[in-house]
Write a structure and sequence with these properties.
CATH architecture of the largest domain: 3-Layer(aba) Sandwich
Strand content: 15-25%
Distance between the termini: 67 Å
Order of helices and strands: HEHEHEHEHEHEHEHEHEHHEH
Shape: globular
Largest sheet: 10 strands, mixed
Radius of gyration: 23 Å
CATH superfamily of the largest domain: Bordetella uptake gene, domain 1
Oligomer: single chain
Number of strands: 10
C-alpha cells in the first residue's frame, strides 16, 4: 500500500504546478503594476505611458503606477527591471536608442536586448523632421541633396549628441546618398535646433517637439519627415523616402513596453491583448498623433521581436561603420 500511496502522491505533485499556472494568469493582476519609462517626466514617451497606464488600470481594476527611471541613459531602469521578479508586475518602456543603438555603442552593455526582455507592445514611432535654415536656397529633399553634393564638406548639421538617433539618422542619409556634411554635436536638442534658426548650422534631423514651433514661425524650413508614413501634425510634409524615390528609407525612434524574460506566457498574452485593444481606440490614436508621434497597430510579440532585431542590425552596422562601436 505504501508504494501505491507514494506513486499517487507523486502524481498529484506533478499535476499541481500545471493546475496552478492557469490560476495565476486568471487572477492576474492581484496587486499594483509598475511601469518604468526610461525617459524623464514630461517627455512624449512619459505622456503616452501615463495615457495607457490609466486605461490599463481601469481594465485590470488595480493601480498602474508610472515610475520614471531616466538615470544613466536608461540603464537605471533596466537594472531595476532585471532585479524584479518576472511576474508581470514590473515593466519598462524603452526607445530604439536603448534597444537598437546602445548595445553596439557600449563597451560592456549590462543587458541583452534580445534575451533579457519580452516585447509586450511596440506602439508608436517617433519620426524626425528634416529642417534647414530658411536662408538655404532649397525647398525639397532632392534640391538639398544636389546643393550639398555641389559643396562637399562645406555644410554642417547639428544633433543632440554623438551616437543619438538624430545623429545616426543624418549619417544614414549621408551614406545612402553619398553626401559630405560636417557633424556639429550639442548637449541638448533645443540648442542644436536654435542654432539652425540662427544660421550657425545648415540643417538637422530634429525632434518634432523641439522644432514645430520654429517651423510654424518661419524660423526653420521643414523638408520631410523620416518615417515611411506622414506625420499627422504636419501632413503636408512628405516622407523622406517618398521625396527621393527610396521607399525603404526610414530613420525613426520608437517606444516599446517590455516585460522581463521569463514572464508567464499567459500574463504576456493578457498584457499584449489589453495594449492592442487600448491602442486601437480612436481616442488614443488621436492623443498620440496630437503630440507629434505616429500611433501603430500592435503586432504580435514574435513580429515585434523580429522588428527590434532588424533595427538593431541596421543601426549597429552603422555604428560600426562610423567607428563608434564600444565608444561609450
Amino acid at each position: 500500500m505504501s508504494g501505491i500511496l507514494t506513486r499517487a502522491l507523486l502524481a498529484v505533485a506533478l499535476v499541481m504546478p500545471a493546475l496552478r499556472a492557469p490560476a495565476f494568469a486568471e487572477d492576474y493582476p492581484t496587486k499594483s503594476i509598475t511601469i518604468m519609462p526610461l525617459l524623464a517626466a514630461g517627455t512624449g514617451l512619459d505622456v503616452t505611458v501615463r495615457l495607457y497606464a490609466e486605461q490599463l488600470s481601469q481594465a485590470f481594476g488595480k493601480p498602474v503606477v508610472v515610475e520614471n527611471k531616466p538615470g544613466s541613459a536608461g540603464l537605471a531602469g533596466i537594472a531595476a527591471l532585471k532585479a524584479a521578479p518576472a511576474d508581470g508586475y514590473s515593466m519598462i518602456v524603452a526607445t530604439s536608442a536603448v534597444m537598437a543603438i546602445r548595445p553596439t555603442l557600449l563597451k560592456s552593455p549590462p543587458y541583452d536586448a534580445a534575451k533579457d526582455f519580452i516585447p509586450i507592445a511596440l506602439y508608436l514611432k517617433s519620426p524626425f523632421i528634416l529642417v534647414v535654415n530658411p536662408e538655404l536656397p532649397v525647398n525639397s529633399v532632392p534640391e538639398l541633396i544636389k546643393y550639398v553634393k555641389e559643396r562637399p564638406g562645406k555644410l554642417s548639421y547639428s544633433s543632440s549628441g554623438v551616437g543619438g538617433a538624430p545623429h545616426l539618422s543624418a549619417e544614414y542619409m549621408k551614406q545612402r546618398f553619398d553626401i559630405d556634411l560636417t557633424h556639429v554635436p550639442y548637449r541638448n536638442s533645443p540648442q542644436s535646433i536654435a542654432d539652425i534658426a540662427a544660421g550657425h548650422v545648415a540643417m538637422a534631423f530634429a525632434e518634432a517637439g523641439a522644432s514645430l514651433g520654429l517651423i510654424r514661425d518661419g524660423k526653420l524650413r521643414a523638408l520631410a519627415v523620416t518615417s515611411s508614413t506622414r506625420l499627422p501634425t504636419v501632413p503636408e510634409l512628405p516622407p523622406f523616402g517618398e521625396a527621393v524615390g527610396a521607399p525603404d528609407f526610414e530613420a525613426v525612434s520608437w517606444h516599446v513596453l517590455l516585460a522581463p524574460a521569463g514572464t508567464p506566457p499567459d500574463v504576456v498574452a493578457r498584457l499584449h491583448s489589453e495594449m492592442k485593444r487600448i491602442m486601437q481606440t480612436p481616442e488614443m490614436k488621436k492623443k498620440i498623433a496630437d503630440i507629434g508621434l505616429i500611433p501603430l497597430d500592435i503586432a504580435s510579440v514574435e513580429q515585434t521581436r523580429a522588428y527590434i532585431k532588424a533595427e538593431g542590425e541596421k543601426w549597429g552596422s552603422l555604428v560600426r561603420k562610423l567607428g563608434l562601436e564600444a565608444s561609450q
